[in-house]
Every structure is written in structure tokens, then in C-alpha cells.
Fold this protein.
Amino acid sequence: MLNLSGEKKKKVGAWLLLSMIGMLVLLPFAPAVVMAAEEAAVEEAKEPEKAKDVFYKEEGEFGIVSGPPAGELVYPDDYGSYGDFQSRTIIWISNQQHLYFGSFVLAVPMFVWVMELIGILQYEKNPKVGKKFDDLAHEMMKISLTAYSVTAILGGILIFSFLALYPGFFRYLSGIFKPVMHIYALLFILESGVLYVYYYGWDSMNDGNGDWKWSHLSLGTILNAVGIVLMVMANTWVSFMMSPAGVDAEGRFLGDIWKVMHNPLMVPVVVHRILGNAAFGGGVVAAYASFKFLSAKTLEEKAHYDWMSYIAMFMGILALIPLPFAGYWLMREIYAYRQQMGITLMGGLLAWVFIMQATMIATLFITVNYYLFQAMGRMPGSERYYKYFKVLLAILVVATIAWLTPHTLVMTPAELKAMGGAQHPVVGNYGVMSAKNTAINTMITTTVVSFIIYQRSNFKLTVPWAWKGNIFLAMLILGAEVNILFLGVYGYFIPANVRIGLSVPQVASTLSVLFIGVAVNTKMLKGAESIGEIRWGKMSVRGAYALFMLAVAFTWTMAVMGYLRSSVRLHWHVNEILRDNSPWAFTNPLGYAGNINSLNVLLFWTMLLFVFWLSALAGAGKKKVEAEEAAAAAVGKAVPAGSH
Amino acid sequence: MSDNKEEAKVGLGQKIVFGLAMFVASGLYYIVFLNKSLMVLQNLAYPY
Amino acid sequence: MAKKKGSGVIVVKVALWYITILSIFAAYTNWLPQIRGDAPEAAEAIDVSAITPEGLQEMGGMIIFGTDDPLGTLARGEGPIGKGQCPLCHRFFMEQKADRCPNLIALKTEPQLLLQVSEEERSHERVKEPRYEEFKKLHADGEKNSGHVPHAETGGQYLIESEYCPNCFVVEGFGLKGTNDTESPMPIINKPPILLVDTEIVAVVSFLQMRDDPTKWTAKDDWEAYFGKDLASEGGDEAPAEVKPAGPPVALGSETPEEIVTKMTCYACHKIPGISVAKTGAIGPLLIEGTNAPNRIKSPEYKAAMKAGTAHATTAREYIIESIMDPGAFIVPGFADDMMKDFKHKFTVSGLDVLVDHLIAQDEAAALADGLDRLANEKEGPIKKPEAKVETGEAFAKNQSKTNEMTIQVSNKKLIENSTFIGLN
């Protein structure tokens, strides 16, 4: 053995570990190399037939035909079924469950990574706080570990469902994506390896903020990177189904797998998905913490979970705020890809789904506000602000009603005649996009105001320019709201295609309040006199239930938008390439989707409660042992990590 | 929001003047800077 | 604190809370309007020779709206959208909201809505726009997505072309952003995802042409002129059996003029040269349309009828079709509005062609050869006059083109583009 000092040994060990993992990262690309070699061989062999790409028209118009045409699927030969039961509903449920757990195991490591980083950075200043964050990260990881195996099982179920019910479609898709699918599988092995080292090495690699800890965090980085690559790969299959590329009009693969993966909707869908996952992960962790909060036996435990739920909720909302931008971008790309696809979404068959989405987002924001109001119960001095809640709540309710006003109403011909059209002369005006955008921006601005109040509720401002700051904030918020309303009204006087553009300055106004407002508020709180420490654990039970509501609303929104994304292909398996010839090629009405969504969300949360319970079981056992040990030693020692 | 000791020293007139100044500033920010620049960016400055 | 409450109780409580929320969400979705999007049926095998123009119009309406009562659907707050998906972007009714693509409202009958020009009329103007020439140059080697070269000559051909090759002409202001109106956002209609077959496209054009004025129907001829081939029925392997429409007898293309005249009982009122049964009718004019039709459309009475908006024919052929399909459009001086009005239901497209071909071939000489003459109340007077003036073919053509030019000027003045319309809206 070399004679190395402890410090050096650690460094070398850390680097060795990292380089090993680096090698592993390269492993999945082996099939790609094999593929390339195979291709080269084929190319030399015979005169290749060339065909035109359905999407990439300008650059490299023609590709070498390298796969069979999609052809026509025949029912029942190319489909499996269980009698008259909609096969797609089985696929729908297994897909949704896999996606929920997949999102969960993707999102939680992201949080864990952020928490661990905060923990390391805080360690210098205050080891106690640093450790608090580190323990939080470790606990979250524990939940993710159990969920990970559930994800894999659900993935297996999904593949079997495809093979059993849609063999013709699956044959075509896997024919094109075979190299990607193999890389995907190999990456999965890598992901599990890193995950286990990351989780089980947590305590042994924990040296506060030393090299081992940083290496551990690097492992977390790799874990997240691999997770995102996995998600991107699976996503390319889905976006290929929506907007195929890299194949010719008959669906024949043209030899360039990157063109197939990089189809027109791939990037915006990926971005939207990552942000959505992060918000969803925050919601789920918040629900977990709330559950633990409610079942906690001691004040110490209650305080811990109250804090954890707050942090998770906060992270979730942070990811939620850029989500509308990603959605806006995705929508624009959809319009650019196929105008009539965009209109089917926004003004055609699926337009009512957006009403449902609006309802869900309104629910989310009202719930967040309600939670903040409840959470102020743990802030001494917050009584001063209770009087504003009524006003804020009233604004929220008005905005919600404006948002929910339907564009056209369902009524009898006589009523129609009396009103002079399907649009009400007065109320109908609140049903258009302008009014809806104004409403949502007002709601977000109100939420920011709630948050600003929450931030300062247990402080007394001491900075000399506080009065200026207050006036500035008031004008900032007032100006934003006036601008939002002005743009909303202005929208009625200009054509629809210009009106769409108004949503951008509206959202920019909202974001101004969010960023400038919160920054100024934070500055004003510098050196502020505390009225009292935050009494973690003193939040009302209703606050915890509000967080459950938030989590359910997140998951339900995901489900309904998933239905939307999938339905927009209408009667195509692969848009315009492979037609769905099964008896279930129709698009289910919204009510049916709502029922399946609720069932899916219930199923997911039931399974998740089981996962929570499992991790609690393990924790309880460990705690018992620790308690006995502590009793035996009869010495007050530092609590081992991961024991909460 | 009168929870500040310093605030007592500041006169009402001073507050109103500052408030008006801020009101104009926020108006300029939102209408001139934000709306205008974003409209131009988006190529939406139609003469409607 | 909550010592007595086990975590089991909390699980149950939380579960109940979840179920409550989820039930509310599900109930709300069930309360919203329920629209099921059915997959479009496979293209219908249609034998154009066995369907009336009106049938084609109806079929076009179904392809566009998916219902025969689009206004009723609109009133229920739903979008009337058929497998053609046209109303997603095009506006067909004042009640409908769609302004992404040019409106196709075509309701001249509602001048208060400032729509004095129908889509049928406007289509004729499109091919005369200088921009159409630019598009011809731009796509001289064939448009890249469809391979077509813009070459429409009439409004109907333009409408046909727009469906097979949306980029062949893009109306100003309706192109994709950033393409300077050279690329259309419209999908190619005979390719996925819309995937209409030729006869369906002809049906859609028929709908557009006949919506405002049933006599303006030229869709089939336009298709054949545009593609330079016959519009065959697309039955795939199995050719559709001759469809015998139920109800009243229908004139078919497989029949001779004699059979059609017999079936339609034209002979009861008219004398027609070359038809053995039609030698005695004395209620309607003698049908020598090679002579009559060109003269009638030049007559001051006919021009008055055009001004009044009842008659629209500009060629002899159009005049004959109009007279059969819409007998009330113009009443020959000296006669009463006695002709039966249901012939538009009784002719297939090809059946009508057969009869019109026969009628347009008859002139005074043919009548004389058959020993037929005009009735006393025909103001032209009997043919059997020594100085009977027979119009030559040359003069005929000259007159025809003159009339054409005139109408174009009139409709040019009335042309109102979409942009103005939307602006006013």
C-alpha cells in the first residue's frame, strides 16, 4: 500500500470512483458504434434507394431507404383485444402509471441534488443547518429508491401491454428505434448502479463539505444527467408519434436515427416535461411531508416535516412559474408544424380540455394562496396582515370566475334567439383569450403579493428607506396590474393573430412583480427586527390538507394534459404515417378522460402511500434500534444521519 | 404598512411626491419599456 | 399531541380527501360538453355519373361540416367540423369564429354583412391577380410539396388547385409567418392527414360554387380541365354498381337524349329536334338552343334579370343548365313561369351533360329538317321565313366574350377582400 495521508487517500479514492463511472457512461454507446459499422457495410453492398423525408425538406432532402414502410394495420390481425374493452384504456393506464413513477424518480433526484448542494454550502456557515438540508435530501432519496423498482415493474407492464394489444404498431416503432431502445436499456443499468452507490454511499461518503461529499454530489449530477437522457430518449418516441421525421411519406426509415429523434416537437416537449416533472416532484414530496406531519408524534418531528413540506412546495412552485412559457413555446411549435393540429387543440375538438386545464391551474393558485395564509399561523406577528387576506381572496375569486366563463354557452334555440347568438352580449366578452390571460396573470400577481406578505410577516423593517420601499412595491404591483388589465382590454380591439402576442407583455408584467418585487422585499428584510422565530410545526392541519390538494391538482393536471397531447394525433398511431385501424381510433370525450384520469391519480397515490408506508416502516425499525442503543449507552450523542 | 419607527419622521407630502414619482416610473417601465420593446421584438407593432 | 390517532386513521382521512377531490374533478369534466372525435370513415367510392350536382353539394357540406345542420351545431356551442376539417381555419358563417385563413362565407344574399361577393365570384378574380402570375413563375418547376405547377384558368380550377396545392397561390396576409405569403399553412388536402379523394374534393368545390347560386356549378368540368383527364370514380378494385337512387326517376349519363327526354317528360311541353317523342309540345319554347341560348343571354330582358340577380349565365351552356336547374331564373318573353322546378333533383351530372350536349347542337336548320317551328307566342317569329337570319358561329363567339368581359368588370367593383372584412369585424 502506498503511504498516503488520509486527506490524499480520500482525494484519490474520489477520483478513482468518478473515473470508473465515467467509463460506465460510455458503455451505452457501444451499440451505436456497432450500428454505424453495420450501416457502412450495407451501404457498400448495393445501390441504395432514396426517398424524401416527410419533415426535413430543405437540408438533405433525400435519405437512403433503410426500413420497411409503415403499411396499413388490419384489425384484428395487428391488434390484440380483450373483447369489446377499449385496449387503449389499458395502454392509457399502464402508460400513465409508468409516467407518474418515472417522473417521480426523475424529479426527486433533482430536488435531492439541490438540497444536498445547499447543505454543503451551508455547512461552512452553520453545520447544523447544513446537516438539516443534507438529512432532508437523504430522506427524499430513500423514498425515491422504493419508487424506482416500482417504475421498472410498471415499465415492464407497459411493454407487455403494447406487445399484447398493439403488436403491429409496436413492431413498426421498435423497428425504427431499435438502437435507441438498446441504449435506453443499457443506460437503465447505469442509472441503477449510480443510484445504489449514491444512496448507500450517503453516510460513508459524508464528510461535511470535504472531497468525499463533493464526489457524492458529483454522483448525484451523473444520476440526474443519466435520468434526463433516459427521459429524453423515451420522449423522442412519443414526439415521433406526434410529429414524425426521418422517414418518408410511407413511413420508411431513411437511415439517420438522429433525424428521427430530433423531430419537430421533440425539444419543446422535452423542456415542458422536465419543468413539469420538477413541479410534480415538489408536489409529491410536499404531500409526503404533509402526511408525515399529520402522523408525527412529537413536536420535533412535526417541525421537521412542516419545514420539509414548505421547502418542497416552494421548489414545486418555482418550477411551475416558467411552465406556461414552455407551454406557449410548445404551442407555437405545434402551430408551426401543423396549423390544423394547433387549432384542433385550441379551437377545435380538444378546446374544452383547456378549460379544464384553466380550472386546474386556478385550483393550484388558490391552493397555494390558502396554504400561505395557513402557514402564517406559524409566524409570530402575522396577525397584522390578516385583514389583507379577504381582499386577496376576493381578487382571486373574481379572476377565477372570469377565467371559467365559457366562450360560448350550451342552450336551447329559444334562449339562443333571446340572447342573439351563442355568445352572451356581456358575459361572452369575458370568455375570450384576452380575459383569460388577464385572469391568470392577476392570479399569479396576487400569489406573489401573498408571498411578499408571508416573507415579512414575522419581521419588523428597520432599513431607513423602508417607506420608500413600500411605496415602490405598491406602485410596482399597481402598475403591473393596471398594465395587465389594459392589455386585456386592448386585446378586444385587435385581430386574434395580433392578440396572441399581447400575452407576452402581460406575463412579463407578472414576472416583473415576481422578480423585482421579491428581490426588493428581500433587500428590505435585511437586518429586520424579528418579532419571533418561525414556529415550525405550528401550521394548522388545514394547511397540510391544502398541500395534499396541491399535489393532487398537480398530478391531475399532468394526466389531463397527457390526454390532450396524446389525443391530438386523432386517429393516427404515428401522425400521418401509421393509421389507427382499431375500433378505438376515435377520441374519447372529456368526461371519459376525466374518469380515467381520476382513476389513474387515485391508483398512483394509493401506490405512493404504500411506498411512503414502506419507507416509514424501515425508518421505524431503524429508529427503534437507535433508541435502544442510545438508552444502553446512556450518552447524548449526535443523531446519525438519515434517522428522521 | 405602518410598522416602521422611521416612518413617523417622513411627512405625508414627501410620501405623496415620492409615490407620484414611482407611479410615473412604473408607468414608463410597463408601457414604454415592457410593452413597446416586446411588441417590437415580436414584430407585432402593427398600426392598429 | 395526536398520540391517540394512529397513522392508520390519517391514511384513511387523507384517502377520503383524495377521493373527494378526484370525484369533483371527474364530475366537472363530465359536466362540460362532451364531444367524441370519431375517426373519419374511409373515402367513399362515388360514381360521379350517378349523383346529382345537388348531391355533390350535399356531400361537400358533409365533408366540410360533418353534419347537415352546421348552424344548429354552432348554436349548441360546438364546432361543426367534418373530415375535411375546413372550419378549423376557414369561416363559413357569421356565427363562426375562424380567421386564420380566408373566409369562405359566400352569402351574397346578406348585403348588410358587407359580403357582396361570394367565394365562387372571388375565385375567378384570384387567377387574374398579378400575384397569380408571380406564383406561376415561382413554381414553374413544380411546387415542392405537391409537384403541381399553378395553371388554373377559371375560378373553379383555382378552387380545385388550392386543395391539391395550397402553396400554388397564397392569399395576401394569410401565408405562414416569415415566408412573405409564399407558403400556405393549409395542408395538402389529398394527402394525410385530411386525405380526401378526387371526387370528395370535387364535392367540396361543388359546395362552394353552389352554396350561393346553384347554377354556378362547374366543379366537375373544372377538375377535368385542370387535370386534363376524366374524373373517374374511385371504387378501388370493385367498381361500384350503378346506383339506382330511390325516389323519382333520375336522368343518368348512360342514357340517350331520347331516353332522358322521355323519362323527364320534356316532350309534354317542348318540341325538340332529333327527339322522336318531342314533336308536339306547345306550352314551352322550341328547344333549338344552338340558336336560342346565345341570343337570349344578349337580350335586354335577360340583362334585366341579371341585374335583378335572378339570372347568372354568361355562356350558352350555362344558360341551358340554368334553365333546367332553375327555370324561374329567366322566363322567355311570351311565356309563363310554368316549368317544373324539381329537375335539379332529377339529373345526375353526366345525365345533364348528355341532355345539354344534345340541346346545344340543335339550331334552326335542325328544326327545319325535322319539320318543327316556333310557337306563335315566341317573339322571334317562325323560322320558315325567306330572310331568316341565322347567326354564324363567329358572331356567336364574339358576343360571348363581350358578355364575359362585362360581368368581370361588374364583379371587380364589388370585390371585397377578407382583410377589409376582418378589419370591420
In short: The two ends of chain B are 42 Å apart (CA to CA).
